[in-house]
Amino acid sequence: MSTDLAQIRIDLAASYRMAVHHGFNEGICNHFTMMVPGSDEHFLLIPYGQHWSEVTASSLLVVDFDGNVIEGEGEAEATAFCIHAPIHRARSNARCLLHTHMPYATALSMLDDFRFPMASQNELGFYGRIAYDDLYTGLAFDTTEGDRLAQVMGDSDILVMANHGIMIAGATIWDAYDDLYYLEQACKTLVLAMSTGRELRRVPQDVVAHTARQMNRTPDRSGARHHFTALKRVMDRVLPGYAT
Length: 244
Description:
- With 244 residues, the protein is α+β, with helices and mostly antiparallel strands.
- It has one domain: 3-Layer(aba) Sandwich (L-fuculose-1-phosphate Aldolase), CATH 3.40.225.
- It has eight helices and eight strands.
- It has an eight-stranded mixed sheet with strand order 4-3-2-1-5-8-7-6, sandwiched between helices.
- The longest helix is centred in the last third of the chain and has 23 residues.
- The chain is globular and about 50 Å long.
- The mean pLDDT is 95.
């Protein structure tokens, strides 16, 4: 196993544990995937039935775009393959995909015609980066649903899936997890503000665009990598063993 793949296994396993720590997981459902370095048709996936708090670097499966397990022990869950494989195939730059039913983001996905109002600083970092799927069609047991979601998502980094949850696409694990974390923070504060029943004070459009440029000014997303490294140190204390 190459050093790059070994490290990616460790980081993807850590991200599953982080999601447990942050309350983003739901039973044994949802999926984080990462393309295998140097491959455009193989990706890493949790084996079906494993709890996210149990994921280790060595337990992750290598799966192809036809749903075959190439390496590892366990089953590739159908909805994971049917959603993630088509998006990975359609988006060569989407090396990492994170799909969750995290509570605040999912709650907002249940609102009719929901769109982020750009009323908090955390929201501004996602300006121009979000696509909205307004059609819920049931469980994804067919790759045609993944193809549809890939088309709706287009080149966006975030897909709000109506009545369902969130999909995050990133070039790296730390890019994607940083977005996942701050998106749920934005959703949480938005839900809290909306719960007051008072009118939201939206940020003026010119300030929205200016702040978004400020927040996304670093092409290499160094802040995201530092954040992810810090969270791994937290995992070493509270949910150790993911690197095995």
